[in-house]
Each structure stands twice: as C-alpha cells, then as structure tokens.
Amino acid sequence: MSLKAIAKQLGLSVTTVSRALNGYDDVSQETKARVEAEAQRRGYRPNTFARRLKMGKIDAVGLVFPIHPVPLNNSVFMDMVGEISRELAQYEVDLLLIADDDNADQHGFMRMVQGRRVDALIVAHTLDNDPRLQQLQSAGFPFLALGRSQLSQPYAWFDFDNFAGTFSATNHLISLGHERIALLGENNYQAFITQRRSGYLEALSKHQLSTDYLRAVPPTRRAGYKAVQELMALPSPPTAIITDCNSHGDGAAMALQHMGLLTGEKRVSLVVYDGLPVDSIVETDVAAVIQSTREGVGKQISSMVLGLISGQPVESLQVLWQPEFTPGVTVNPPA
Q: What positions does the domain HTH lacI-type occupy (predicted)?
C-alpha cells in the first residue's frame, strides 16, 4: 500500500501525507489524525530504513552496562530493562544491550557512537567519576546516565536517593533500640553502592554507633548467606542486618531462617534493598527499601531518553526519586 493511495483517498498531496506520518510540525494535528487513521485502516507501514535516512535518525537506543559485576543476574535490573524496551517499542524505537568491559583498552560502546548506530545511550551503574560519561560528553553524544557522576558540564540523569534509603532504614532500626547493625554492601565502587554505604555510615555516626559490622561482599545469594553465618558467629553478633541488594539479601534471609532467627523470640531484624526476589524460597514478609515499580521506572527513563533525542535541554532531564521503606514483619526491637 503506497502513500499515493492514502493521499488520493483523503484528497491530500503525497508530500503532506508523508510529512504527517513522519510527525512534522508544519502539518496540523487534525490532518495528522486523519492520515494516521487512514494509514492504520489500510495497514500501511512506512519504509523504516528510508525514513531513518531521510530524517537522520536510527530509531535505536543503546543501554550500556558493565560486565563486572554481572547485572544481568540481577532481577531488578532485568525487570527495568524489560520495561524500558517495552516503552520504547511503543514509539518504534529499539533498545540494544551493550556490554562494556572496564578493563578493555577501548570501550565497545564508542563504536556505536562513532558509527552513529544509535540515537542516544543509556549508561547504567555509573561511577562517581565515570570515564564513560566523560568520553561521551567530550564527543558531544546524547546520553542519559542512570546515576549521578562528577562531570564538568550538565548532563541528563535519572537516579534514586540511595543515601536516603539506607539512612532512613538505619535510623528506623536505631529508633527501635538497635545498636549493633550490620550492612552487607556490594564490593565495588559504583555510585549507588557508595551512596547506600554512606547513608548507613552517616546514620551510625550521628548516634555514635560502631561500624564494625560493615561487610563488603559480592552480590550473590551465597555471599549473603555466608556473611550472615559469620556475623552471627561473632561473640556480640548484630541484632539487625541491612543488605544493599536483593541477591545477597535473599541469601541473608535464608541464613537467618535456617538458624531460626528470621522470626520468633530470638529474631534478628532484616531489611533488604529492593525487597526479596520474586523467586525467593523465603515466604516471610521481609522489610524492604523499595524504589518504585519497574513499570514506573521504565516509563520515566523511556520518556527522558525520548526527550533527549528530540533535543530537550539536559538541564530539564535530571530526575531524583525517593525510595520508600516498608517494614514488613522483620523489623522489631532487639530480641
């Protein structure tokens, strides 16, 4: 089905029909609606490749993620990726996953930039001083950072207040009378990890409590399980535990459950960032720091990256969301 047939049916020129389907501003909304309705009725789909060449757009966005640690093992990250992809697909924009090796001489995503294979990049798991973002900013290429970093010029970013999440959770435990509070934190220097660690440490410092129960562990169930076993074997074990990701949070919950400490008279309070994974075998309603829904995050990020592609100022594309604390049944005064 050609543009000519649509133009003839509506009494419009082929040029007007083409510009209406491609979203040009010089075509009225009424005319666009008529053209789109007729195109849909006829099952017309434009030649995507030709349209991309004409408009200088690729209709693809790359999502850059680090190889180490492996975020594809994280259900929260993968749920978010799925929602971003679904939202962008509604605008006929494809999402490409680009693995990036920090130890490589050259970042693989720069091939996408230099070959103009994507319209913009989403950069996940940022660092406080992130060479990827610095390189993209120097190249003048549009990007949306998932996390804040230190850059010389303004840039688009979306983030959660990770500091506030652990700070509020730790303060809540302290208000219940806990003094020996452990944090199982990921053993890397990505920005969201350091921010969560800082929130925990700041709350302890404010009340002059010991930081001896801080542990840096890999983001795995096994590491969380073993860390809790070791903590509970101490002469003065913690009375409360916070984990900064749900993978080792699940391991921590399993360890406490196996030791009879997740519930009951000798229970140890537990707070898991992002909540337990959906496939967890632990059925107890564990306390959590929740970062909105994956659907909400996907819509927000997709909207921002589409705005970036359309030329919105980066200063208007800077969004910080606040996490929420849900107490569940695993936050109680010390046993």
A: 1-55
